[in-house]
């Protein structure tokens, strides 16, 4: 009895395959010295056009981790212009684990004025707010 030939699965693209929701979103970002930098709120990929890839087209590449003050948007609704968010280039990521570890110092990562102001004027005044708990 002749069995029908099943099509071969597509070749796996080079690089690392990630489930962004599980591996990146809402993960804390730490610099090379384990100082907290922020939290991954979103990611940016290469332009995928209308979102439908033709067969044989390479998958879009991850370009930036996006972080910024989106808590107010989640509470009150609305959307901020994308230009107001800070971007960390994917090339600066050194390791993925329970946190995203960067290969650069925190000073090399863009931090929005609101996050910097809150860290200086609010968080540091809270007992234990000057260091990462051990």
Structure description:
This protein is of the alpha+beta class and 134 residues long. The protein has a single domain (20-47, 58-125), classed as SH3 type barrels (Roll). The chain contains 3 helices and 7 strands. It has helices at 20-23, 71-76, 113-121, and strands spanning 28-30, 36-39, 42-45, 62-67, 86-89, 93-96, 100-102. A 4-stranded mixed beta sheet has the order 2-1-7-6, with no helix packed on it. β1 (28-30) and β2 (36-39) form a beta hairpin.
Question: Which terms summarize this structure?
Answer:
single chain, 134 residues, SH3 type barrels, alpha+beta, 4-stranded mixed beta sheet, elongated
Largest sheet: 4 strands, mixed
At CATH's second level, what is the architecture?
Roll
User: Within the largest sheet, what's the order of strands?
Assistant: 2-1-7-6
What's the level 1 CATH class?
Answer: Mainly Beta
% residues in beta strands:
15-25%
Number of helices: 3
| Secondary-structure element order, N to C | HEEEEHEEEH
Instruction: Sum up the overall morphology in one term.
Output: elongated
Q: Provide the gyration radius in Å.
A: 20 Å
- Helix share, percent: 10-25%
CATH third-tier fold name: SH3 type barrels
């Amino acid at each position: 009895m002749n069995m029908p030939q099943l099509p071969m699965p597509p070749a796996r693209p080079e690089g690392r395959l990630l489930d962004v929701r599980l591996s990146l979103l809402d993960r804390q970002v730490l610099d090379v010295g384990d100082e907290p930098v922020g939290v991954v709120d979103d990611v940016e990929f290469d332009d995928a056009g209308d979102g439908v890839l033709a067969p044989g087209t390479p998958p879009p590449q991850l370009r930036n981790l996006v972080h910024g003050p989106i808590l107010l948007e989640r509470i009150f609704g609305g959307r901020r212009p994308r230009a107001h968010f800070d971007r960390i280039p994917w090339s600066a990521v050194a390791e993925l684990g329970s946190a995203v570890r960067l290969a650069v110092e925190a000073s090399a990562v863009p931090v929005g004025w609101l996050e910097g102001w809150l860290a200086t004027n609010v968080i540091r005044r809270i007992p234990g707010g000057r260091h990462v708990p051990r």
